[in-house]
Description:
Elements: H1 3-15, H2 29-37, E1 45-49, H3 56-62, E2 67-72, H4 75-85, E3 92-96, E4 109-115, H5 124-137, E5 138-149, E6 156-157, E7 160-161, H6 167-174, E8 179-190, E9 196-206
Parallel strand pairs: 1-2, 1-4, 2-3, 4-5
Antiparallel strand pairs: 5-9, 6-7, 8-9
Amino acid sequence: MNQDLVRHWQNIYTAKQPTELSWFQAEAETSLQLIESARLTADAQIIDVGGGASVLVDHLLMQGFEHITVLDLAEAALQRSQQRLGVNADQVNWLVANVLDVNFSAAQFDLWHDRAVFHFLIKEQDRQQYLAQVLHALKSGAYLAISTFAEDGALKCSGLDVQRYSPQQLIDFFGSIEFDVIHQGKALHMTPAGNQQKFSYVLLQKK
């Protein structure tokens, strides 16, 4: 694991409250809509990649999902969520890891959710490794819900460069051979500081 990257995110989550972070959402509206479109059953295996201190896991638990994994590089981020959830945190599988390095089981997940991790992968080698992880870990018929900065969105986040995408560019990268397109679109996120951030999103289903 890239220790410099780990320290970077650890420092961010240690220095600030989750509500002070630019990506904070009181409700993960777009993500929840995409997941609802997948029509998963309560026993579905769901992974939230880069879930950190996001409240998405809270909503998934409230909706009755029984098998949720939240992955993040920063242990401090996951600890924020665990503290927020209290005893309910025991219902979640917390994974401190770089998504590129995890030895996922084959066909492990029914849904892979990623809001704003993929766009940090600015090296093609890393993007291809991410794609390989997705294809390996998703079941046939499973879903990929992914969101990134839009092609006209921010150039950086938390001091790091990002790769921006239109919905079509996301579709092209993950591939029509491997996935069917269920939904695509754009969303505006309002940061706690009152700034707008432009996002692209897709919901794809693995063939």
